[in-house]
Write a structure and sequence with these properties.
This protein is mainly α and 411 residues long. The protein has 18 helices and no strands. It has helices at residues 2-24, 30-68, 71-86, 96-108, 112-129, 138-148, 156-164, 174-196, 203-224, 228-256, 261-278, 280-295, 298-312, 323-328, 333-347, 352-363, 367-377, 386-409. Helix 3 crosses helix 4 (96-108), helix 8 packs parallel to helix 16 and helix 15 runs antiparallel to helix 16 (352-363). It is globular.
Length: 411
């Protein structure tokens, strides 16, 4: 419903601004420009979806091998001590822990669409444990905040979009995105734990989160001492090496379990192809709406206004071009994806705004969409503190994305 209002608003505002331009400035070319934008945006949306088909099929296939090979289950067992502390209401060894980890794994790999069915399955398991069926349980809220905080270790789809848009180094957003999404997730965990009175001062959580903080701090410190070219070089190599090692590890786990890895890959890849096809109409719809909005001059008016306000207070307004992606992300993943692509088209994939829009896209997740879909699937109507915790994690991720992008990409 929210996306419906946004979509209609884009067209309505664009129409009003176009009429005003026609009446007050005599700009007779405004409507032809808007119509040209609709056709070019629709073509761009299809080309992007077509490019995503292969990558989604690849990673869905690889994940299916990892599941059949037992690697995913092994990772779930290794995380069980941590999960038992963050989800104290879930019985130890309950199968829903595996479902939660599968969902978070898909999110960590940047496979947003693959994560949704896994997340719905996890919510059904959590609802079975929920004593009040119309009210969100603490475990449900913690699970959804971990989703909305958008912890992304391998932003596969974002790097593919950058490749499609012609970025010189599609993986150069990897480390900035990792830093921003970690801040968002850490904030979400802390805020939700405070609401739920979960004691974070225990050995397991302190060692896990403390170790993660040290690693992230070390990365930030190390890269802060490098120049921009060196940062880009290292982040590109690390991302590519890590991606290839994950593929090899999943295949090796399948071979060890005597799984027919080829058949397992094909089985998972079919789901990836279906997912890529399903997102085409959504991507067309949002890119056309954004194209109309921009062609009318509405987007320029909005960003210029924000930029003027920032510069009036002596701030650096280079981030404003990417801000629409951050503002759209809590509402709609497809909408934010469209904003990200639009920023790369308008400013260039290797511009500061183009790169920052990619970091925004991966730093958080679609808070309102996730809450609506996940709670709706189990008929939960009372969401308690889920929205507040999710939005606080989003805000932390946005601020962190701006900060680390200035560190990595601004001259």
């Amino acid at each position: 419903m929210v996306l419906n209002y946004i979509w209609v608003a884009f067209f309505g505002i664009a129409f009003l601004i176009a009429i005003c331009k026609l009446i007050f400035t005599g700009d007779t070319g405004i409507f032809p420009a808007i119509m040209d934008s609709t056709f070019s945006s629709a073509r761009t949306a299809f080309e992007i979806s077509l490019g995503l088909t292969g990558v989604l099929s690849l990673w869905m296939g690889i994940m299916n091998i990892g599941e059949k090979g037992g690697l995913v289950q092994a990772l779930a067992r290794s995380l069980s001590p941590l999960f038992c502390k963050l989800f104290p209401d879930i019985p130890k060894g309950h199968p829903v822990i595996g479902n939660i980890f599968m969902n978070l794994s898909a999110n960590m790999l940047g496979l947003d669409n693959a994560a949704t069915p896994l997340g719905l399955k996890a919510m059904e398991g959590l609802q079975e444990l929920n004593p009040q069926k119309d009210t969100a349980s603490n475990s449900m809220i913690m699970f959804l905040v971990l989703n909305t905080s958008g912890l992304t270790l391998i932003p596969v789809s974002i790097m593919v979009y950058r490749t499609q848009m012609g970025a010189a180094h599609p993986t150069d957003v990897f480390l900035p995105l990792l830093l921003a999404t970690f801040v968002s997730t850490l904030t979400g965990i802390i805020v939700t734990s405070l609401y739920q009175r979960i004691n974070l001062l225990n050995r397991t959580i302190i060692l896990t989160l403390g170790g993660a903080c040290l690693v992230i701090a070390g990365i930030a410190w190390g890269f802060s001492r490098m120049d921009k070219d060196t940062i880009n070089l290292w982040s590109t190599h690390i991302a590519n090496t890590l991606l290839f090692c994950i593929i090899i590890a999943f295949i090796a786990a399948g071979m060890r379990k005597r799984v027919n890895v080829y058949d397992a890959f094909i089985e998972g890849a079919k789901d990836g192809f279906a997912t890529a096809v399903r997102i085409i109409p959504y991507l067309v719809a949002i890119l056309v709406a954004i194209g109309v909005f921009r062609a009318s001059g509405a987007m320029q008016f909005l960003t210029d206004g924000i930029a003027d306000m920032i510069t009036a207070f002596g701030g650096n307004a280079d981030f404003v071009g990417a801000l629409p992606t951050a503002l759209m992300k809590p509402l709609s993943g497809s909408g934010a994806r469209g904003m990200m692509v639009d920023a790369m088209q308008s400013y260039g994939p290797d511009s500061f705004a183009g790169r920052l829009s990619c970091v925004f896209q991966g730093a958080t997740d679609t808070t309102f969409y996730i809450l609506a879909v996940y709670f709706g699937c189990v008929n939960v109507t009372r969401t308690r503190h889920a929205v507040a915790c999710g939005l606080m994690a989003d805000a932390a991720g946005i601020l962190a994305a701006i900060g680390v992008s200035y560190l990595f990409f601004e001259s």
